[in-house]
């Protein structure tokens, strides 16, 4: 019974890591798209966007951190499962 509980717990934590990675990728791409949109007026010689548009570009870094946290969570979960099994 104890092994089943540990396996289910490890599976749920692994899913949490996977979800964090997916969410991080989505946030990263939203920030990348915002960066492309924000930089476009510089090349098109139009008026620049307001400063809040530049703040949205920071989502690239936030997404990268979220995805990194998901990877770390997955690694820790796998190590815990290996040490419990062996």
TrEMBL record:
Q: Which UniProt keywords apply?
A: Membrane, Transmembrane, Transmembrane helix
Transmembrane parts of this sequence: 20-40, 52-72
Q: What name does the UniProt record give this protein?
A: Integral membrane protein
């Amino acid at each position: 019974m104890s092994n089943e509980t540990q396996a289910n717990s490890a599976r749920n934590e692994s899913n949490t890591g996977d979800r964090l990675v997916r969410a991080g990728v989505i946030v990263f791409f939203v920030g990348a798209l915002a960066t492309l949109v924000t930089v476009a007026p510089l090349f098109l010689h139009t008026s620049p966007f307001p400063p809040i548009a530049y703040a949205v570009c920071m989502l690239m870094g936030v997404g990268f951190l979220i995805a990194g946290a998901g990877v770390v969570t997955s690694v820790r979960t796998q190590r815990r499962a290996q040490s419990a099994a062996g």
